[in-house]
Design brief:
The complex is a heterodimer of chains A (115) and B (112). Chain A is mainly β and 115 residues long. Chain A has strands at residues 5-7, 10-13, 19-24, 31-37, 44-50, 53-57, 64-68, 74-78, 87-94, 105-106, 110-114. In chain A, the strands form 2 sheets. In chain A, strands 2, 4, 5, 6, 9, 10 and 11 form a 7-stranded mixed beta sheet that branches. The chains are: A mainly beta (115), B mainly beta (112).
Chain lengths: 115, 112
């Protein structure tokens, strides 16, 4: 158990819909990262927040957005869903965002299926 | 930009030692090398991290030559449960989003 929690574990929805994925970081971690992993693909970095502020953006679509709240939990919002958005979405957390020895701790993921 | 290159896949048998090499020719002075392990449908898990020479923990060893342009993850006496994808990451000395590029990793298959 990494200490990072993600809800829900599974999500099935239809094209055009909007969903929200939630992540709670490890206690004491200030950075939260979101990744997308499609079937048999590598991890694609989406976005990172540090202490409530956006710090880095990866290949995140305009239909996707995220935020980190004062209690440090984070939400990833996916809208106008398409079939190709079906994937595993991982959240990770770390203590800092630039410390050389910083490592990420990953949650169990949310499996999104768009029908 | 500290891009990494790893073999796409490797096969081994139980009880053998497995060495996975990662190339990172543009590694920066302040960059560390970190390896993660991912099982199917699970989030990656930290295995080991190092800066130079050799690092060993209860799971693996990490060998880094003096020029630091490559690193080798060594898994001693693998078992079936070591079948997973292994990712090499370099960073974040000069912070940029390249430290967050996991790529496709190396898919290790261990046979009985």
């Amino acid at each position: 158990d990494s200490g990072v929690t993600q809800t829900p574990k599974h999500l099935i929805t239809a094209t055009g819909q909007r969903v929200t994925l939630r992540c709670s970081p490890r206690s004491g971690d200030l950075s939260v990262y979101w990744y997308q992993q499609s079937l048999d693909q590598g991890l694609q970095f989406l976005i990172q927040y540090y202490n409530g502020e956006e710090r880095a953006k990866g290949n995140i679509l305009e239909r996707f957005s995220a935020q980190q709240f004062p209690d440090l939990h984070s939400e990833l919002n996916l809208s106008s869903l398409e079939l190709g958005d079906s994937a595993l979405y991982f959240c990770a957390s770390s203590v800092d965002w630039v410390t050389s020895t910083d490592t990420q701790y990953f949650g169990p993921g949310t499996r999104l299926t768009v029908l | 930009l500290a891009k990494t290159t790893q073999p796409i896949s490797m096969d081994s048998y139980e009880g053998q030692e497995v060495n996975i090499t990662c190339s990172h020719n543009n590694i920066a002075t302040n960059d560390y090398i970190t390896w993660y392990q991912q099982f199917p449908s699970q989030g990656p898990r930290f295995i080991i991290q190092g800066y130079k020479t050799k690092v060993t923990n209860e799971v693996a060893s990490l060998f880094i030559p003096a020029d630091r342009k490559s690193s080798t993850l060594s898994l001693p006496r693998v078992s079936l449960s070591d079948t997973a994808v292994y990712y090499c990451l370099v960073g974040p000395g000069s912070y940029n989003t390249d430290k967050l590029i996991f790529g496709t990793g190396t898919r290790l298959q261990v046979f009985p």
